[in-house]
């Protein structure tokens, strides 16, 4: 007898092109199962995955993301659909008893398929975003091996790629319910197989006579969130030939410390289900039976509080049989509201009654070949949380994201804006002008949409549904979505906050868990109803380099919420070398045009990878050239990181400067590239961050001190719900000689909750003989104990100037003192560094120089205050003792505290220091990538004024058999300090 539950079928698959297999599905799964061999067309398959992913894995075709190799792979428009029609084959075991049932589940296939099991055929109908569940109980071998073959067909309308390229190719893909980016966009090259394949999870699932299908969990709130009710509904299917009596159980637990769980609720209901029938069952809410919680731990977005999650488990026991099925989900108690703000005209979001200023990014998908994994999703979403973002927008030309994506958004507190599969370029405009009526099969679109809602609706991170990108769905689809996703009255603020004293629901009001969703708004398009101009005008963007000060100006963007604003994003030089042959290592030519501006001319490989320049002739002078003409790839990419940092920090600080007075939110286009692209990203496809990542991390702090680059006023941002009081600002200017010509503190400050306030004008640039290039360090701290709430570092030049004086500054030799300690848990390394600029003894008047940070991170993250306090004294033995005390929780210490001091006779700012992690290699070949990725840094691309120290936490996983080394480099740091 098999155990109840799911078994993934994610290994042991084979694949072959259909035209190379001269056997039927019946033959493959009975008398002639395939095998690999010298003359066999069968190869190891990537499942979940795509045809192209399988071909790349087996090196049948080159890596389409490397250099210009994508151009050598035949496109489906030229080969025909049969070329990418593939067989996939595997085997699985089953051990069923007489009353058990077995389902074969495909969570998604692109685009349709025929399935054969032990000679029997089943059909998976069309549609990329729908689940398929096949009851195969009667055709599997109850004890033994089963043969499974799947013939997968590409989308019906894969389209062709016009010579001029464009957004979504010739738009034919829009006739199908599928991803639209696959015909190419201005940020990605075409995907040759259009993502054909079994691209999501395949599993077998064993149940007893009764199966649980798509439970729906909804929480309702009363008494100012002190009283919460959990509503639950589910479909139940009786697959037996007799009436069954069931016990339907729901259990809610919360995790305590030490891997212990507290059972909050355990309730049982008795249900009778007719033979071979399906019923919708809602757990009752009555005076005698309630899932009632008093003062529950709420789920909050990143930066607003903890992401508290409860484990909800529903089981069904059948009389005379026992447990028949079980379903579980992590659930967060939270309420999301949204309306158009009267002050700004932008859409305003509230979570648990608190307004949240949206700072986030646009997301396409993790990987263009749909090589999706929990490990990759974990890094992706943690990166967004590390940047202090609170929302991710899943763009309409990409995916309905997977449950694993949402799991990590739940865990890290990222609200999700999920669009359906409509984009303006493919569904109404473009060159050639596309069809505004969307896919050919509107019923199929709605079937996929409803199934997607059921798949994702229990995730607390899911914040809103949107019909499409820069376009409204066709009228009938839009009407159906509007009706299906209408809000339950409890989420329209119709009822009094106190609700009904007995149940929390008014008599006769339909239970909210009976709705398809009912808890989140539906917006018809990304430019409507409080986004951009709110009326569908093409008023998002711009998408190129800007002057940093322009983000702060009144006329920069006139609407309250910008769903897309983009800019540059070249990665580090190591990524260029790892993803391109040597001819792609050539930096752009800087060509002076007639109007005095510089035009960048990239090499053909950069152009193919959609490079966006750091200049906009006629609008913006080249921002890399401000630092001098780059001499090689390393120089170009390093100077580009300086620009990336300034560009994105200014973007977010400019928006935050007008929090609630002009803006309600902004989403940057875009946070990452699902391939080796060269524009609009904070980390590259190899998972290494650009400096723009850390510019965002600084600017999006919940509590932040910043300089308004347009007015030169110092501002304090408080996005929290608590008033800041008894705080002060320390402002210090440092010149290139390491002296401090300007030092001021501004004390006795207070900042109301949810406010940005202007404090004082920074006078230095107007003083006598200001330096043409200088550094500004701002620190916001508590006056009671000097604990720092926010630290912000700028490099600035006088109006009309540049940063060319920083070029000779690279010759400075600034001494550093580096303390490091390494802790290992399995394959995970956690390295704690403390880097200090020892070029000058700390000045006693610089009260906050020791950087004693207050903790503003979640409990699961590193508390910088614990380390910073150990470094206020220079006694090394004191530091060692406290390090050991702090990190007892780790399973293994690699070594004791190491202290390294580097020589240097100059005094000045240790500028633009950055860590990287590498595998130790004895011989390094040119272009070989030794980096270990991904790595999570508590900060990077940081600068230290004389006497100042900073803690950095570095976390990463090491592949088997690899010895890591951590390297520190900097703009004016001689050599590369390495820690083994």
UniProtKB/TrEMBL annotation:
It comes from the Eukaryota. Gene3D superfamilies: Galactose-binding domain-like, Glycosidases, Immunoglobulins. Residues 211-334 form the Glycoside hydrolase family 2 immunoglobulin-like beta-sandwich domain. InterPro entries: Beta-gal/glucu_dom_sf, Beta-mannosidase-like_N2, EBDG/EBM, Galactose-bd-like_sf, GH, Glyco_hydro_2_AS, Ig-like_fold, Ig-like_GH2. Residues 714-796 form the Mannosidase Ig/CBM-like domain. The keyword Heme does not apply. Residues 894-972 form the Exo-beta-D-glucosaminidase Ig-fold domain. GO terms for biological process: carbohydrate metabolic process. Keywords: Glycosidase, Hydrolase. PROSITE patterns: GLYCOSYL_HYDROL_F2_2. Residues 39-199 form the Beta-mannosidase-like galactose-binding domain. Transmembrane segments: none annotated. GO terms for molecular function: hydrolase activity, hydrolyzing O-glycosyl compounds. PANTHER family: MANNOSYLGLYCOPROTEIN ENDO-BETA-MANNOSIDASE. Belongs to the glycosyl hydrolase 2 family. This is Mannosylglycoprotein endo-beta-mannosidase. It comes from Trema orientale.
């Amino acid at each position: 007898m098999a155990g109840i539950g799911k078994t993934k079928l994610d290994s042991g698959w084979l694949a072959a092109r259909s035209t190379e297999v001269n056997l039927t599905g019946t033959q493959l799964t009975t008398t002639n199962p395939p095998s690999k061999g010298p003359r066999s067309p069968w190869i190891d398959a990537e499942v979940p995955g795509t045809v192209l992913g399988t071909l790349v894995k087996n090196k049948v075709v080159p890596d389409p993301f490397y250099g210009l190799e994508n151009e050598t792979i035949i496109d489906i428009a030229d080969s025909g659909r049969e070329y990418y029609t593939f067989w996939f084959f595997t085997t699985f075991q089953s051990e069923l008893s007489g009353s058990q049932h077995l389902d074969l589940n495909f969570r998604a296939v692109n685009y349709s398929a025929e399935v054969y099991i032990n000679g029997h055929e089943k059909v998976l109908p069309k549609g990329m975003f729908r689940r398929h569940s096949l009851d195969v109980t009667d055709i599997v071998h109850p004890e033994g091996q089963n043969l499974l073959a799947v013939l997968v067909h590409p989308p019906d309308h894969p389209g062709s790629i016009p010579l001029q390229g464009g957004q979504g190719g010739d738009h034919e893909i829009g006739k199908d319910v599928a991803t639209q980016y696959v015909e190419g966009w201005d940020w990605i090259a075409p995907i040759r197989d259009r993502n054909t394949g079994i691209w999501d999870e395949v599993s077998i699932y064993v149940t007893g006579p009764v199966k649980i299908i798509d439970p729906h969990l909804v929480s309702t709130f009363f008494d100012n969130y002190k009283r919460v009710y959990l509503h639950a509904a589910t479909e139940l299917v009786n697959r037996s030939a007799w009436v069954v009596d069931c016990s339907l159980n729901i259990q809610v637990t919360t995790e305590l410390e030490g891997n212990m769980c507290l059972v909050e609720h355990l309730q049982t209901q008795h249900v009778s289900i007719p033979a071979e029938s399906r019923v919708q069952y809602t757990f009752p809410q009555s005076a005698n039976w309630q899932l009632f919680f008093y003062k529950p731990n709420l789920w909050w977005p990143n930066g607003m509080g903890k992401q508290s999650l409860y484990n909800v488990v529903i089981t069904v026991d059948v009389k005379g049989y026992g447990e028949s099925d079980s379903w579980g989900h992590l659930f967060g108690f939270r309420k999301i509201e949204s309306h158009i703000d009267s002050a700004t005209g932008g859409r305003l979001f509230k979570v648990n009654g608190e307004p949240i200023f949206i700072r986030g990014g646009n997301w396409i998908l993790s990987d263009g070949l749909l090589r999706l994994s929990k490990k990759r999703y974990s890094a992706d979403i943690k990166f967004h949380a590390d940047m202090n973002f609170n929302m991710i927008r899943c763009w309409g030309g990409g995916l309905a994201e997977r449950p694993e994506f949402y799991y990590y958004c739940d865990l890290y507190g990222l609200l999700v804006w999920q669009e359906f599969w409509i984009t303006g370029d493919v569904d109404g405009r473009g060159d050639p002008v596309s069809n505004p009526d969307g896919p050919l099969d509107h019923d199929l679109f709605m079937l996929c949409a409803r199934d997607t809602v059921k798949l994702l609706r229990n995730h607390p991170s899911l914040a809103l549904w949107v019909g499409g990108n820069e376009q409204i769905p066709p009228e009938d689809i839009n009407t159906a979505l509007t009706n299906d996703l209408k809000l339950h009255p409890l989420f329209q603020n119709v009822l009094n906050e106190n609700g009904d004293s007995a149940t929390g629901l008014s008599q006769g009001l339909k239970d909210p868990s009976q709705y398809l969703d009912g808890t989140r708004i539906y917006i018809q398009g990304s430019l409507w109803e409080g986004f951009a101009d709110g009326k569908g005008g093409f008023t998002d963007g711009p998408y190129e380099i800007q002057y940093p000060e322009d983000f702060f100006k009144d006329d920069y963007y006139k609407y309250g919420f910008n769903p897309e604003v983009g800019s540059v994003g070249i990665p580090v030089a190591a990524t260029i070398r790892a993803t391109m042959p040597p001819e792609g290592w050539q930096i752009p030519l800087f060509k002076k045009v007639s109007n005095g501006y510089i035009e960048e001319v990239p090499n053909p490989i950069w152009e193919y990878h959609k490079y966006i320049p750091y200049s906009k002739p006629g609008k913006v002078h080249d921002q890399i050239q401000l630092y001098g003409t780059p001499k090689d790839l390393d120089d170009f990419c390093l100077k580009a990181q300086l620009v990336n940092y300034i560009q994105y920090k200014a973007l977010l600080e400019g928006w935050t400067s007008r929090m609630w007075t002009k803006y309600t939110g902004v989403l940057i286009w875009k946070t990452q590239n699902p391939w080796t692209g060269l524009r609009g990203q904070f980390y590259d496809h190899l998972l290494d961050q650009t400096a723009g990542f850390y510019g965002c991390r600084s600017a999006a702090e919940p509590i932040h001190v910043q300089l308004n680059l347009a007015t030169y006023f110092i501002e304090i941002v408080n996005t929290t719900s608590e008033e800041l009081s008894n705080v002060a600002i320390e402002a210090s200017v440092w010149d290139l000689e390491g002296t401090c010509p300007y030092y001021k503190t501004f004390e006795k400050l207070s900042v109301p909750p949810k406010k940005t306030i202007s404090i004082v004008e920074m006078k230095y640039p107007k003083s006598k003989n200001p330096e043409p290039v200088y550094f500004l360090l701002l620190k916001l701290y508590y006056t009671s104990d000097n604990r720092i709430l926010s630290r912000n570092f700028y490099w600035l030049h006088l109006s009309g100037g540049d940063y060319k004086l920083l070029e000779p500054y690279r010759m400075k030799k600034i001494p550093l003192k580096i303390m490091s300690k390494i802790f290992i848990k399995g394959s995970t390394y956690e390295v704690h560094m403390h880097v200090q600029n020892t070029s000058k003894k700390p000045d006693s008047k610089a009260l906050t120089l020791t950087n004693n940070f207050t903790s503003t991170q979640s409990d699961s993250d590193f508390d910088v205050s614990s380390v910073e306090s150990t470094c206020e004294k220079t006694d090394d033995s004191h530091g060692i003792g406290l390090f050991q005390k702090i990190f007892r929780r780790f399973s293994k210490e690699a070594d004791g505290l190491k202290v390294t001091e580097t020589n240097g006779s100059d005094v000045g700012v240790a500028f633009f220091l950055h860590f990287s992690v590498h595998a130790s290699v004895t011989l390094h070949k040119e272009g070989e990538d030794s980096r270990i990725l991904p790595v999570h840094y508590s900060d990077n691309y940081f600068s230290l004024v004389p006497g100042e120290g900073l803690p950095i936490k570095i976390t990463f996983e090491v592949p088997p058999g690899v010895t890591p080394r951590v390297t520190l480099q900097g703009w004016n740091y001689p050599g590369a300090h390495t820690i083994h």
